Amino acid sequence: MIVRSTAEITGTERDVAGAGWRSKRIVLGGDGVGFSFHETTIDADSVHEFHYRNHVEAVWLIEGEGTLTDLDNGVTYQLGPGSMYLLNGHERHRLDVRTRMRMLCVFNPPVTGQEVHDENGVYPLVAVPTQ
Fold this sequence. Notes:
By secondary structure, the chain is mostly beta strands. It has 1 helix and 8 strands.
């Protein structure tokens, strides 16, 4: 059994930040459960483009508002608390954040914990070390 709190993760190597976003990596690949689980916050009045070529991501928005645009087909979705989106086709996407968003994210395959988005918004595929 694994029990962790975001308070104990804050300020550790599991607390990763980029330009306008912060990801607290609660469950990582090294935990050996086949997925990773993160609490991610994105700053208000910001725009971010992502493309998870190597991962499937499920996102559940629990705070904030904005829009999600599928950059492959131009379709835009309104997001608010309770919205979920699943990037099961590795879609290139843009988040236009109106109010600070807080979301819970699941990645498969799991991330190791130190990945950051490259210039194309992609997380590299990093082999998970075995325990």
